[in-house]
Amino acid sequence: MRVIRYRLNQVKLGIDESINVLPRRIAAKHGKGQKNPLKIFDVEIIRESIDARRKSDIKKVYTVDFSSDVKLDLPEAPDMGYKQVEAGTEVMERRPVIVGFGPCGMFCALILAERGYRPLVLERGYAMEDRIREVKAFWEKGILNPECNVQFGEGGAGTFSDGKLTTGIKDPRIRKVLEEFVEAGANEDILYKQKPHIGTDVLRQVVKNIRLKVERLGGEIRFDARVNHLNVEEGHVTGLMVQTGYQLINTEADNVVLAIGHSSRDTLRSLVETGVEMKQKPFSIGVRVEHPQEMVDKAQYGAAAGDEHLPHATYQLAHHCKDGRGVYTFCMCPGGEVIVASSESGHVVTNGMSFRSRNSGTANSGLLVDVRTEDFGSDAPLAGVEFQEKYEAMAYKNGGGRYKAPKTTWGEFRDGKDQAAAVIECLPEFAVTDIREAMPELGKKLRGFDDDAAVFTAVETRSSSPVRIVRDENFESTAIKGLYPAGEGAGYAGGITSSACDGIKIAEELIGRYSPYEGK
User: Fold this and answer.
1) Distance CA 45, CA 55 (A)
2) What is the pTM of this model?
3) What are the b/e assignments for 363-378, b being 16+ CB within 10 Å?
4) Cys-Cys with 459: which of 22, 209, 426, 473 at CB 3.0–4.6 Å?
5) Are 226 and 124 in contact, with CB atoms under 8 Å apart?
């Protein structure tokens, strides 16, 4: 009989049991009634999660693929390999240009390079080593480089985060993204962990390795290359004006992928002037909330908290407020730290970051409130950006300048005492009201979450883009042909993984239309 590959869900092990028992456990359960002992081989973990609903009996739960030459009453394992699209026949006169080297631009460039299209990437920030130096100077001395910072530079904003790869989308391209990260140096467990993360320290080298791979395959990445203007003739993109140091260079292009991220506000304003169609999009605003990681572990794991076989616990909480808005936690970083992630002079915005080890002893997450487009106070496409900037400027002022974020505790925030005003002023009134309503309710869902000593740091505004650059069913701008808005900054993704997948989609669209680039 032919060898068949199967998929099996809900295989449960105790937290201290080794994954080496999986073959034996599978054989014992599904080999019943067989004349000979069931032989299984090539066991591969597809997913691992923690079931802590019964704190007295926490389990690790696995989905596994395995092979056998016996016909079993189990579903066959699906093919998870990346499916390449067939190349088109239209001649590509000029190589494709990608603006931005965050997850979206990076994976768009990688897919194109793998197929021989030799993309050119223009990244306004610096390469990794220089970027790390600039960010260090910002955090230690308050010296902001508007061109290279936590938001701009090799790897995009995700480089200085937790490297979290959790996503709500269902897309077969996710596997391709994870496999490329592993090939570039990420731990293999990101292929199957329920909430995979790479860690900021590891991600820096992973990003660099992917860049080197793109270059080996014929792609080119230019750093310190800010796109100032889009050249358009008769409704079609013809090139870009690129600022490199003190030079302004005209770069010809027929196909431009806009993977600019959610913080390139000057680029957005230039695109509006050029006539690119955009729409307002809802987003969220709030604070970073911090607790002792030990508290989170005890709330989630009970007496098992601290067990060496368990990862630090996470949470995902939400409350529907009386005014109809949602308050929710976002981008939770176990064992992480809160950072200032500014990209504009005189503005403060916060984010969460953690290293691979997640050993800081502190847990943090965004505590965010829905912002509706009617809150913007204007019909202008970039009114949401101005809304963000208003509160980021207030956070800078209330932090005393030099990019120190204002802080208070939940107890002070609730009662309006002591340091609370510095944080409260960084939020719209509805957000203050809704957070005050939500915190006690969230504390009922996670014991200790509403402890008076929980630290609030203002302000978090960039969980998603407040604008969507309109594109058609072929991912092309509805206003300018040859322009492909993509990723988080264009309003089509949220986070590393979904942004990477959107970049792959754009690459596939170009590959399906054109034959590989053969020019110089």
Assistant:
1) 24
2) 0.95
3) bbbbbbbbbebebbee
4) 426
5) yes
